[in-house]
């Protein structure tokens, strides 16, 4: 069964620990610029949202890659980049509708979440549980329940 990282935005505090542990895991040093996950912040609103590769069913990044360096693993559902083929054109970065693909200009490498091979470090270290590694069906179920609870409170005047 394929799993994916789910974000519960309401639980995210914007601590950016996920960025730190990702960079330590992938690069051996705490360097959020080399992290595969980025926390987008709207400080005045108190809104924080971790962003990363969503491993789309039909990845646009794969379509635009001029050297066929982006591929999808049919077994795991993960989209990956063959760094040996990558020419650093950044087409995949520009094409990603979610902004989930990054580029390190210093190293000339595309940075993409690979879900740590099925054991995402960011999820393990997220103290508020804003990040969870779940089956895609569970995401839909949780969102439906949250929407139903919100509607219930709206129509029944409760909190």
What is CATH's topology name of the domain at 55-96? Alpha-Beta Plaits
Stretches where pLDDT is under 50 for at least 5 consecutive residues are: none
Give the quaternary arrangement of the chains.
single chain
Q: What is the average of the pLDDT values?
A: 90
Separation of termini?
A: 36 Å
Relative strand content: 15-25%
Please trace the helix and strand order, writing H or E for each element. Answer: EHEEHEEHEEHEH
- Radius of gyration, in angstroms, nearest whole number: 17 Å
Number of helices: 5
Could you tell me the number of beta strands? 8
| Largest sheet, strands/sense/barrel | 2 strands, antiparallel
Strand order of the largest sheet: 1-8
State the helicity in percent bands.
Answer: 25-40%
Output the structural class: alpha+beta
CATH architecture identity of the domain at 55-96: 2-Layer Sandwich
Shape: globular
Instruction: Output the CATH class name of the domain at 55-96.
Output: Alpha Beta
Question: How would you characterize the overall build of this protein?
Answer:
The chain has 159 residues and is of the alpha+beta class. It has a domain at 55-96: Alpha-Beta Plaits, CATH 3.30.70.20. It is 30% helix and 20% strand. The chain has five helices and eight strands. Strand 4 (70-72) and strand 5 form a beta hairpin. The longest helix is centred in the last third of the chain and has 21 residues, at 136-156.
């Amino acid at each position: 069964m394929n799993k994916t990282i789910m974000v519960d935005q309401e639980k995210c505090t914007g601590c950016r620990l996920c960025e730190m542990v990702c960079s330590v895991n992938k690069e051996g040093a705490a360097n959020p610029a080399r992290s595969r996950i980025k926390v987008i912040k709207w400080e005045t609103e108190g809104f924080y949202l971790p962003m990363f590769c969503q491993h789309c069913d039909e990845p646009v990044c794969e379509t635009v890659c001029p050297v066929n360096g982006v591929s999808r693993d049919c077994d795991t559902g993960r989209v990956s980049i063959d760094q040996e083929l990558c020419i650093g054109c950044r087409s995949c970065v520009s094409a990603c509708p979610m902004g989930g693909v990054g580029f390190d200009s210093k190293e000339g490498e595309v940075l993409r979440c690979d879900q740590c091979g099925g054991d995402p470090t960011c999820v393990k270290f997220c103290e508020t549980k804003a990040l969870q590694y779940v089956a895609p069906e569970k995401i839909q179920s949780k969102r439906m329940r949250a929407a139903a609870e919100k509607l219930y409170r709206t129509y029944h005047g409760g909190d």
